[in-house]
Every structure is written in C-alpha cells, then in structure tokens.
Amino acid sequence: MKRLFSPLFACALLLAGTAWSQEATIRKNLADRIPQLQQIDEIIKSPVSGLYEIRVNGNEIYYTDAEANYLVQGNLIDTRQKRNLTEERIEKLSAIAFDALPFKDAFTIVRGNGKRKLAVFEDPNCGYCKRFERDLQKINNVTVYMFLYPILGPDSGEKSKNIWCAKDKAKAWQDWMVRDVTPAVASCDNAAIARNVELGRKFKITGTPTLVFADGSRVPGAVGADQVEKRLN
Questions:
Q1: DSSP letter, residue 94
Q2: Alpha-carbon distance 132 to 126, whole Å?
Q3: According to CATH, where is 3.10.450.70 located in the chain?
Q4: Is CATH 3.40.30.10 the classification given to domain 98-232?
C-alpha cells in the first residue's frame, strides 16, 4: 500500500504545529498578563535561541521567551558582527516605497544633475528643519521632493499654504528656511497640504524633518550633510 505521508512531510507538520502552539501560548499569556499587548501584529523567532520577537503597532519590537514569562524591551545586538538587529528590523518595517509617494503633492528642488533622489517631510516652523535645510545646501546632484508637513500649529499651516501657493515654491521655501524671508501671503488650491498630513499619519511620521531615500529607508531628524551623502550613495 502506498504511503500517504513521507517521514519528512510528517516532521514538517510536527514543526509547524509546534510553532503554532508556541505562538498561541505567547499570545494568550501576554494578553492575560499585559492588557496593552492584546493586539499583536506578528510573532517570529529571533536569531537568539529560545527568544521570540513580538511586533505591535506596526513597528514596535519586544522580545519574549516561549512561555511569555519575561518581556524584554531594548535592542538586540549581534556582538560578532557589531550590528544592532533591532534597529535594522525597525528600519525595514518602517521603509516607505519611494516610487509610490504622491510627488504631485510635493515641489522639487533640483541641484546639479538631479540624478539622486530624496523626499523630505518638513514643517516651516521647525527649527531643526531650518538647520537641516542650511546643511542641505552642501548636497549636489540631487532632486529633493519637498512635502510640506505642518504639524506644529496653525501658523505652520498658514506658512505652508503661502509657500505652496507662491509663484516659485522652491524659492519661497528656501527664502524662508535659509534666509528668514517671510513668505508673502498667497492663495490657491492647497488641498495637497492636508493630503500630506494624512500621508504622514499613515506612515507614522511624528517629527520633522523626516527623510525618505530612494531605497525606501527613512531617517528622522536633522542629520548632517555627510550622513545624507552616505545614504544617497
């Protein structure tokens, strides 16, 4: 009589069942013990034997054992390769598909041949953004897609509208951010700004500036020109 299951297939089924059982145990125990962890996006094995990665709220990472008796919050470091595995994982989870960004809702600043690409979400009243913009002047051969992202208050929205409606958006932006020239009052269809705010919320962009590179990686904060160059290259 022909055998229905090979030993290898049976072993695979057993391993899958064990993995499901461990995941179910972790989910149940964490939900019972820590109400904030009722909704878990994903549970996978970490590179460390017996340690599991717990992912919640999209890109928040915790670690636990197979019984969820302990919960670890912090970075998992590979000491041999000197790599922060937690940071790498969060960066991968936070990646944004660059080509899918709605560039019609941004204006561009082109320097040199413009071959390298960078998208930036900025608030015109953000001091860190002003510092970043001054540093960005050192970067050549780049196209910057500027998404106005007014999240610091009503005046941020007003300045964003005046910049968006200016005859030369890029000039009005740089005049304000680099040279402290207040943008002139202007009016037009500025629905793009509201769409940018919604887009930022979707991608959980909580601070400005936030940079998105062509490979989808994002970097929050006013990083220096040297770091921008490294990422662009």
A1: T
A2: 10
A3: 7-93
A4: yes
Whole-prediction pTM value? 0.76
Structure letter (DSSP) for residue 181: -
Burial class (CB in 10 A: 0-12, 13-18, 19+), 230: exposed
Q: Give the C-alpha separation, 20 to 112, whole Å.
A: 54
The residue length of the chain stands at 233
Distances (CA, A) of 179 to 4, 133, 134, 172: 76, 10, 9, 10
Long-range contacts (CB closer than 8 Å, 24 or more residues apart) made by 199-202: 199/102, 199/105, 199/147, 200/121, 200/147, 200/149, 200/151
With beta carbons less than 8 A apart as the criterion, state whether 205 and 149 touch.
yes
Quick check: 8 and 46 in contact, CB under 8 A? no
Q: Both tokens of residue 41?
A: 């996006």
Tell me the two tokens of residue 216: 């989808």
Give tens-digit pLDDT for 120-130. Answer: 999 999 999 99
Per residue in 68-85, pLDDT tens?
999 999 999 999 999 999
Domain 7-93 matching CATH 3.30.70.1560: the answer reads no
Residues of the chain with CATH 3.40.30.10: 98-232
